[in-house]
Structure formats: structure tokens, C-alpha cells
Fold these 2 entries.
Entry 1:
Amino acid sequence: GVSALLSSAAYADLSGKVIGFSQIGSESGWRAAETSVTKSEAEKLGVDLKFADAQQKQENQIKAIRGFIAQGVAAILIAPVVATGWEEVLTEAKEANIPVILLDRGIDAPQDLYLTSVASDQVKEGRVAGEWLVGAVGDKECKVVELQGTVGSSPAINRKQGFEEGIKGHANLSIIRSQTGDFTRAKGKEVMEGFLKAEDGGKGICAVYAHNDDMAVGAIQAIKDAGLKPGSDILVVSIDGVPDIFQAMVAGEANATVELTPNMAGPAFAALDAYLTDGTQPEKFIITESKLYTPKDDPQGEYDRRKGLGY
Ligand code: GYE
């Protein structure tokens, strides 16, 4: 109504506004890119971004969010490490009239506790990866090992579900082992080493599906260390589209990735600006694109393009 318009008129743009960003940490190349894009988008708009790195711990995120509320920030961006346990602190933000925008991961909480969520369709990402593998193996029998993301995170839950949907109805494909690699390169490598040992040095494995590229890059190293060829002896499919996976594709060591833009902040700031200007309610879910890349899609060019953007 009119009073809402009048009371929000002071927020004509984001310049000079203090906005808190509770980031998960720096577990992956994608995460590092998201952090740097968010900082540079904020700078472009003249936003005074207060950045808090939670080192993978929800309790640190909750502490940071309470700090932002106490400071009276104009808005809070949160990349939620896990899906559950947000209701209390988000209610505190709501009571303080501070809009919250979720970045890149979803939560299990009432939707009125956040203004909007900017993220990909993570079930779709998994489905695209699974459907790619179905096409790649044809009628061949294919035993798949899966490297899951952080336990309890929305991308780990949804990418698992989506992949299972993607391979459903194709009895020649089956997931024989599945374990978390916490979205990191080091754990991806370690868990893959275990899979290889358990499966006759890797001879029983046809493909590895990793919930992100960093774990795939770790798995590629483990496969090479075991004396097998990633990309041919064992197919490698993952999600993110970071420069390193394109480099692996150029080397013939990775087969497919589903791109996830690190620019979640651009749409988030646009939605926030409109909301603070005249109360415009954004879509509840702003969904970014999920595009498949394979070695046919100019991996060197894709690598160069991302490096040019500073990822
Ligand atoms: O794919 C992964 C990161 O939350 C969707 O988190 C994001 C995921 C991303 O660590 O690399």
C-alpha cells in the first residue's frame, strides 16, 4: 500500500547500504568464484558488504547472522551450509525487519522467512548428469560410484535424487557405492581411493558421478594413481563448470559437467534493490541455468573464458 511505498522510499538504491553476507567457506573452486563475484558485484553497486566466512559450520553462520542483525544491516545474504536448523535465526531477522536472501542452497523452513532464493535447480543438475551418462554408455553395463556433497546440504540431497531419476529405467546402470566427499578435492580423492580399492583396483567401476567438480578433480587424481585412465577407463561426470574441470576435459580426463553460474549475487542484488525501492516482491525462487558441457563444447575456450572473468 501507500504507507509501504512511503516508508521504503528512502531505499532508492543499494549504494551506501550495509549488507551482510554469511558465506559457507571455501570448500570448492566454485565457492571461491562465488565469493569473488559477490564482492565485486557489491563494489560495483557501492554496497558496503560485510563478509563472514563460516568455515563450513552452521553455528558460525548463525553467529554471523545474529551479529548482522545486531548491527542493523539493510539486508543479509546467506549461503546455507545445510538445509535444516534455520528457523530460529531467520525469525529473528524477520522480526528485525531485515530481508534475507538465500544464495545457491535451499533450506527447509517456511518461505516467508526469506525474501527470495537465488539458486540452480539442483535436482535437474543431477538429472542432466544422469541422462548424459545413460546416453554415453548405451547398452553397456555400467557400475557407477558416487561422490556426494556435504551431508545435509540441499545440493547433496537434490543432486543425488536427480541423478537417480536420470538413470531410472536403465537397468544396465547402477550406483554401487556412494559416500560423501564434502565437496572438497582432498576428500574426493580420498573417498575415490577407497572405492578403487574396494572394486578390484577400479576394474569394476565404469563411471564416477561427483556432486561437484572439485571432488571429480580429486577422483581423477586417485584414478591416475591407481594406474587407470580417467575419462576412458572410468568416465567422469560432475557439476559446476569450474576452470579446472575444463582443463581436465582438454586433457581427456573428464567427460561432462553441468555448469552452475557463480553469479548468484547479481540477481540477488537486483531483487533486493527493487524490493527496497518500492516493495516489489521478487519471485520466491530465482532459478539459474543448468547447461551441460562435454569435450565437444570447446573446453579450452570455456576454460579461457572463465579465467578471463577471474574465476
Ligand atoms: O556446487 C559446490 C559448492 O552450494 C550449489 O557448493 C553449491 C555447491 C557447489 O561447494 O561446488
Entry 2:
Amino acid sequence: MSFKSNFLWGGATAANQCEGGFDADGRGLANVDVMPVGPERLAIMTGHHKMLDFEENYFYPAKQAIDMYHEYKKDIALFAEMGFKVYRLSIAWTRIFPNGDELEPNEKGLLFYENLFNECHKYGIEPLVTITHFDCPMYLIKKYNGWRNRKMVGFYERLCRVLFTRYKKQVKYWLTFNEINMLFHGSFMSSGLYFDPGENELAIKYQAAHHQLVASALATKIGHEINPDNQIGCMLAGGDYYPNTCNPEDVWAAIKSNHENYFFIDVQAKGEYPYYALQELKNNNIKLDIADGDVELLKANTVDFVSFSYYSSRVAAGEKNAAEKTDGNVFASVRNPYLEVTEWGWQIDPLGFRITINQIYDRYNKPLFVVENGLGAIDTPDKNGYVADDYRIDYLRSHIQAMKDAVNEDGVDIMGYTTWGCIDLVSAGTGEMKKRYGFIYVDRDNEGNGSLKRTKKKSFDWYKKVISSNGEDL
Ligand code: BG6
């Protein structure tokens, strides 16, 4: 036996990438809704092209997505058929508080998730809930400047109190912010921040980061107060940086990149700002607004477990060493000549998964939860609509094997594993539908055409076998 008998196998999604129903039952508008498909997406995502509402001549895939808002019962039944023990999903903040600063929540939004959680429990599936997966109410962005403003901590706290109280009997696994380190890279997409020309972006990002870190610690505190059984985790966009060569300049560049990556989790898991971040603030003349009590709050409310996504390792090179770049989660990486890449240029590195798992465990010594991993690929259904996705099975098999090695050979404590996009959904990076991760094919294309019909892929039966054998039969 390698994985624990209660190992949580399952899949993961995010509200804005699958629910659709963008204005159903009183839902308000969020940053993640106004991300169109097309060449402007990257500049919008990073906060350098302002898009604060729907504009003509753009296609916004999140508006309908795969319509899980209406289809969730059927989709959860399919997850149950695969034997899921856990389903990771996120709450759309604007279903609960359409503007974000209301005093009372929207009952219809609350009811939607209550029903969804009941549906999970019907099949013995434990929900793992991401409180915010990149979303931020547009109203809060326009009126308060979003996470630049300290008031956001209070709005987020109100959301958390409502969720922890209402779902006390239904949910015990929570994540405070999805890929919190994405704030530094996809600032608008992940946190609703955009920048005017000439602004000090680094200072704005650090101040917003401080607000999110305080909000996360507060969520951990009240989550434990409301239900001591709650297990609350942080969430990192993972993937360690290798040095491009053994040139010390490259090694130093890799250390710096890893520091930037781990900064948020260092605070959430260790309870204080790491020395390198304090020095970076000093070096850049950034004076953070830290309120009375923040330092103590961060210290006293560290997370119960550390969760992360892993798609790829990354490579860093010293400034003087020119190196070819490749794509991957908005994080720049030097191209690693030892690795194959996906159709989107993401490097495939199962051993890098084991390396990343070990680095994180070594750094925090807390239980780990792998909450995203998978292959985004183009699937071509045959004439019966069937997708024989052996390439996806190969990717997942090699990564699960690497995770197994981390458990068996290295002694890492891992609570569970949820593949990303267990059902095809909208890509966060590109807004495309054709970048598919699922075990379940959804008939919808990049332009929004298609019947939305769900069809099991070959990987569906494969993953079912993996789960029923608790990871023994890959
Ligand atoms: C992670 C996000 O960055 O990677 C997900 O948490 C995202 O929201 C996933 O979908 C895969 O990225 P992409 O760009 O292929 O959708």
C-alpha cells in the first residue's frame, strides 16, 4: 500500500470557468467575467489593458462556460461514477454578494451551493472549496480599487463568515485564495488589479498582497472558530525553478525566482514575512501599510495544510545569460532542452513534480494537497464522439507515479490529489475551450458553438481504475 486508505482522489474546477449563468439568480459581475478570448487577453489579465465591463465585438467565454450552473447534477453523477472521493470547486463571490459590500447575502446564490454540496454528499464526495478562485466583484474594483484598499479585508471576511456558517455541516476542507502568488503575474485576472501608466506596480502588488495575506489569516481564524473541524489551506501556483546551468548566475536567478514564488506561502504557512521579502521591500523603498494587530494575526493563524497546482517545472537564467523562453501559467520560464512541451508550450516534467513536492514539504513540513495537475490538449472526437486521449493518460500516469514515489520513497505526507478540469472547461490563460483537460468531453468550441453534450473519454475509465485501486493500478 502506498497512498493512505483515506487518500482523497478527485478532480477540480473553478466557478467562472465552468458555471456560466453569469447573471442568473442575482449574480453580480466579476473581473473573471470580463476576460475575452483574443489577443488583448494577456494585457487585460496582467492589468495593462483596462476592461471593466462587457464591450462590443468581444466574446466572453465565462458568460456561459459549460453551463454547470444548470448541469451540475449530471456532472457530479459522472464524477461519482469515476469514484471521486473529493470534488474541488470554487464559490463565485458575486453569487453570494453581487456587489461585494452588501450586508446581507443573496439567498439564491447560497442555495445553489447548498444544493450542489448535498449532491456531492449523496455520493460520498467530500467538497473541497476554494473561497475565491481569482474572482473579485467588479463593483468593489470600481468603487474601492479592489485589493489595493484595506476595506477588501472586511468584505472578504464577511463572505467567509457567511460561507463557514451556512455550510458548517457540509464542508470541512477550504482554500482561502487560489494560486495566491498569481497576484504578481496575472494581477487583474487573479485579483482585479489594473495599473495606470507611471504607477509603482511593485508597491501596489505588495500592498494588495498584504491585504490578501491578512484576509487569508482572518479566514483561517474564523474558520477554526466557527468549526474546529475545518481544515483550511493555502494554494500555490507551484513548479520549482531550476537553474539553466551550473553557472552561479543561473543558480542565483533560480533562488530569486523561487523566493518570489514562495513568498505568499511562507507567510501563510510560517506566519511571518520572510527575510528576503522584507529586504526586497527595503531595497525598493516600499513602505507597507501594516495595521496594528496584523503581525500577530498572521503569526497566530497559519494554515493547516499546503495545497498547490503543478503543471510544469520552470527554469531561470541570470540576466546576462540570454536564453530562449517558453510558456506556462503566465510565469516566464527558460526552455528546458531535456523536456517535451505540450501544444501550448508547457514543459512536461513528472520528476519535476516529485522535486516540487519534496521542496514544498521540506520548506513547510505540513500535509500537502495536490489540487491541480493535468494536460491541456486538443481532443479530436471520432465519428461517434469518442475521444481516445492516451496522451492525457500518459501525462497523468507519469505524474501520479512521481507523486507515489514522493510518498513511498521520500516519505511525504499527501492528503489527496485532484486533477485540473476533470470535465472540459474554459481555459484561464487563453479563454479557449479547445485547451481541454477533462475526463469528460464537452461539446463546445472556442466561439461558443456546440450542444454542451457531455461524453466520457478513454481517460474516464482509466481514472476510475486508478481510484478504485487507490493508485496501485496506473
Ligand atoms: C491554474 C489555475 O493556473 O491553471 C486554473 O488555477 C487554470 O484556473 C489552470 O485553468 C490551467 O491553466 P489554463 O491556462 O490552461 O487554463
